[in-house]
Amino acid sequence: MVTVRYTNAGLGGANIGYASAGAAGADVQSAHPHPIVVRPGERVLVPTGLRLEIPEGYEAQVRPRSGLALKHGLTVLNSPGTIDSDYRGEIKVLLVNLGNVDVTINYGTRIAQLVFAKVERVQLDYTYSGVQAVNPLSETQRGEGGFGSTGTAGASASASAAPPAAGEDTTTTEPSTLRHCC
């Protein structure tokens, strides 16, 4: 088992811990001394008082707590956020309220969870010199296909949306056609 050392400048005791024997993420709590009201659509950076000593070759991933997301629409932005092994500053959690009502975060509220994971550093090999490829990237069947290019099984279009006719141009510049679900 890997040991992660920590200090706590926030709560008067451990403000990080696993909620159950099988929990993958360790819950972290707000160490802000006063209630924080997060309005709908608002982002807040919440202090935890924690400073970690993560072993080299590991990271801590900051992830949302499912109950806060389901019940209050409160989630972690930039999720999962990465805490690198050489960072020694205070851990702060960037939260956003995606719900319709204000959410109050009190001192000691469990606001996120940290999942510790092994990471592998790679050697980066730059393949271009100027405009000519020195060592071109290998070809794959997928190529440059992204965002749904390998299929969207399980997703369905609305009944009014008909598939494009053969040869029909489906590109558009109208921003309303690109909708983010959350």
Order of helices and strands: EEEEEEEHEEEEEEE
Q: Which ranges are low-confidence, i.e. pLDDT below 50, for 5 or more consecutive residues?
A: 169-182
Instruction: Tell me the name of the CATH class of the domain at 25-118.
Output: Mainly Beta
What does the main sheet amount to? Answer: 5 strands, antiparallel
Summarize the structure.
The protein is 4% helix and 31% strand.
Characterization of the model:
This protein is mainly beta and 182 residues long. The chain has a domain of 94 residues: Deoxyuridine triphosphatase (dUTPase) (Deoxyuridine 5'-Triphosphate Nucleotidohydrolase, Chain A), CATH 2.70.40.10. It is built from 1 helix and 14 strands, in the order βββββββαβββββββ. It has a 5-stranded antiparallel sheet with strand order 2-3-12-7-9, with no helix packed on it. It is globular and about 60 Å long.
Key descriptive features of the protein:
3-stranded antiparallel β-sheet, 182 residues, mainly beta, disordered C terminus, Deoxyuridine 5'-Triphosphate Nucleotidohydrolase, Chain A
Please describe the topology of this protein:
Elements lengths: L4 E4 L7 E2 L8 E4 L6 E3 L4 E5 L2 E4 L4 E6 L2 H7 L1 E3 L4 E3 L8 E6 L5 E3 L4 E9 L9 E2 L2 E2 L49
Antiparallel strand pairs: 1-6, 2-3, 3-12, 4-11, 5-10, 7-9, 7-12, 8-10, 13-14
